[in-house]
Amino acid sequence: MSTIVRKLISTVNAAKPVAPYNQAVVADRTVYVSGCLGLDKETMQLVPGGPTEQTEKALENLEAILKAADSGVDKVVKNTVFLKDLNDFGAVNEVYKKVFNKDFPARSCFQVAKLPMDALVEIECIALTGSVETKTVQ
To answer: Which domain of life is it from (predicted)?
Structure first.
C-alpha cells in the first residue's frame, strides 16, 4: 500500500492562524483551507470597513494560501462562507463574484452567532492540486 502525503501549508503571504491550526492541509491532491478572515497579514487585525472590505481581504488571504498549496481559485470545488449577519449576503456576493467569476465551485453560506475576533465574514474552501480539467455536465 502506498503512503499518502499530508502536507501542512504555511505562507507569509496570508494572515497567520489565530488559533492552533494550519492555514491549509493537502492530503493527496485535495487542499483543505482553514477559515480565512479579513485580517491584515502585517498587523493581524481585521481590516477597517465593513463586510465588503473584510471579504476582499479574506479572499486575498485565501488566494495566497491556495497558491502556496500549488492550487488556485480555478481549482476550488467547495466554499463555505460564514457571515455574522446574513443581511451582508449581497455585499459579500459582489466581492465574491469578482474572484470566483466562472465555473463556480459549490458553495454554502451561513449566518453564525459569532466569528473569531468578532469578524463579519470567514471563508474556507476545499480545492484540488495538479492538473484539473473542468467539464460541464447538463
So the answer is: Eukaryota
Q: Give the CA distances from residue 97 to residues 39, 44, 73, 94, 100, in Å, rounded to whole numbers and listed in that order.
A: 20, 25, 11, 6, 5
**Which residue, 7, 12, 10, is CA-closest to 23?**
10
Q: Which of 121, 106, 134 is nearest to 60 (CA)?
A: 121
36: which DSSP letter?
E
Q: Which residue numbers are catalytic? A: 109
Task: Report whether pLDDT(1) > 90.
Answer: no
Residue 66 CA to its chain's centroid (Å):
8
